[in-house]
Amino acid sequence: MDAQQTEQRYGFEVYPKRDLTIVRGEGATLWDASGREFIDCASGVGVANVGHAHPKVAAAIAEQAARLITCPGVFFNDARAKLMQTLIDIAPDPLARVFLCNSGAEANEAAIKFARHATGKHGFVCTMRGFHGRTMGALSATHKYREAYEPLIPGFSFAPYNNLDKLAAAIDDDTAAVVLEVVQGEGGVRPASSEYLQGVRSLCDEREVLMILDEVQTGFCRTGRMFACEHAGVTPDMMCLAKAMGGGVPIGAVLVTDAIEPAVGMHGTTFGGNPLACAAALATIDVLREDDLAGRARHAGERFRARFEANRPAKVRELRQLGLMIGIELKEKARPHLIALMERGVLALPAGPTVIRLLPPLVISDAQIDRVVDCLHEVLA
Ligand code: PLP
User: Fold this and answer.
1) If DSSP codes are grouped into helix, strand and coil, which group holds residue 70?
2) What is the position in ligand 1's atom list of the atom closest to the CA of 243?
3) How far is the CA of 46 from the centre of ligand 1 (A)?
4) Which pLDDT tens digit goes with each residue over 97-138?
């Protein structure tokens, strides 16, 4: 049996699969089992920001693997300590402390627990179309994919995104926190306006409610800044991170201000702060900074927009974008176009039924961007 048959036979399939077996990657290029080349505009769903098989990340993983792979949270560890310091160095003030975990959903789980613990309140106001993960707590904050799993955690309500008045009306005396993304990713690539984010910050301060920003998809230079909240000059009380953080190795984090006080036993996870993942994250952050991949995301994003818009296909309803987080809302279903793009050697993602989402590695070359635009123009003609 080949890989496809074996996965189909033994996998517990929960994904709409495509007929492609990927075996190798380098930069923004992926290869299938037959040696065919693809331009990657998925990045493992926003993970491979530094590109595939980055030599510095690969070397750091190999070096750490040969030294120490695991170390529980009850002991101190050099790689973990260095990562915590680095995260606080790159995070906007006043984020001051780090809880390390293993995924985006877990980062949101932790933030939800920390908010209840810190405030003694129970409620959360989240946003319509918001996505925060598939575990029961993160799903409770998520607007879709809920029905089959109810009852979820009580106390979660939803306000329309980018609407400050509705958010203000949804906050009550038992609201612990507001939870939102800076750009809604799974919800269709919808950026928040700076005024909205600044308004949320002021509202949270006035009403003594914590602001939790989920930067799982927007973090680590994807939008042209290290963290997307920097575009609006807004710092949350808690920031959730994962995806691109480990260059492809699973790792997540919640960064918190001093307003959230830690307490022994408050939360925990076996793999959180694992030295192997920490070494991968340290190397990834070094590459992001040394190679100015935030600048690269701004440049490549602008090149994409200019070329795409110069000949915008009539099937396009709207182009929404921040850096290299790109959503093309169509007037029809996206999936057939995703297949057509794949046939032309471009791998892209959906974000809802009618949106083509592009999250290429930030190291994508200008020539590759141009090729992606040409392919989009062809398939959407
Ligand atoms: N939060 C956001 C904004 C996401 O985009 C995602 C995943 O797409 C998650 C949380 C969940 O992350 P994970 O799949 O690592 O649990």
Assistant:
1) coil
2) 15
3) 10
4) 999 999 999 999 999 999 999 999 999 999 999 999 999 999
Closest CA to 299 of 199, 369, 381: 369
- Which value, to the nearest 10 degrees, does the dihedral of the CA atoms of residues 210, 215, 218, 220 take? 120
Residues with CB under 6 A from ligand 1: 45, 103-105, 108, 131-133, 181, 185-186, 214, 216-217, 242
Q: What is the pLDDT of residues 204-217, one digit of tens each?
A: 999 999 999 999 99
CB 138 within 8 A of CB 105: yes
Rounded to the nearest angstrom, the distance between the alpha carbon of 184 and the centre of ligand 1 is 11
For ligand 1, mutation pick of 49, 136, 243 (most atoms within 8 Å of CB): 243
Nearest CA to ligand 1 atom 12: 104
Q: Which of 144, 182, 183, 216 to mutate to test the pocket of ligand 1 (most atoms within 8 A of CB)?
A: 216
Cα(104) to centroid(ligand 1), Å: 4
Pick the closest to residue 115 from 67, 171, 189, 175 (CA basis): 175
Judge if pTM exceeds 0.85: yes
Token pair 């800076």: residue: 182
The string of DSSP letters for 146-211 reads -GGG-S--TTEEEE-TT-HHHHHHH--TTEEEEEEESEETTTTSEEPPHHHHHHHHHHHHHHT-EE
User: Which one-letter amino acid corresponds to residue 129?
Assistant: R
Contact between residue 368 and residue 63 where contact means Cβ atoms under 8 Å apart? no
Please state, in angstroms and rounded to a whole number, the distance separating the CA atoms of residues 362 and 304: 12
Distance CA(39)–CA(37), nearest Å, equals 7
